[in-house]
Amino acid sequence: MAAAPEPGEPEERKASCTSLHLSYWKSVKLLGFLDVENTPCARHSILYGSLGSAVAGFGHFLFTSRIRRSCDVGVGGFILVTLGCWFHCRYNYAKQRIQERIAREEIKKKILYEGTHLDPERKHNGSSSN
């Protein structure tokens, strides 16, 4: 729900600021080439990697009290968790797309053969009644 406009501020300016703010965050690119908004699995991988980095770095710091080594562990945790989440998510995404493609082909065959002598359901029902 939108907030009510304030009496002293024109509505045009509010709309342009809001659209500018939203368009900026929708076009965020990580490292200049990874469009986080439009790439499947990128957002979740980066978020989980950041969490993994914080947990690994802070956990290592609590155990050893070595700042530099804890930062190194945090960076390593970010890389490992991000890549792990990325590959896991992309594998499941590819598997889902293959299943969707197979289902789409089966639906096309069902529509094409329904009611003809090539319909497998018609043969099965016809042979059981004889």
UniProtKB/TrEMBL annotation:
Task: Give the protein family.
Answer: Belongs to the COX20 family.
**Annotated localization:** Mitochondrion inner membrane
Gene Ontology cellular-component annotations = mitochondrial inner membrane
Q: Which GO BP terms, alphabetically? A: mitochondrial respiratory chain complex IV assembly
To which species is this protein native?
Answer: Pan troglodytes
One Pfam family from the record: Cox20
Please state the gene responsible for encoding this protein: COX20
Q: What is this protein called?
A: Cytochrome c oxidase assembly protein COX20, mitochondrial
Query: Keyword annotations for this protein?
Result: Membrane, Mitochondrion, Mitochondrion inner membrane, Transmembrane, Transmembrane helix
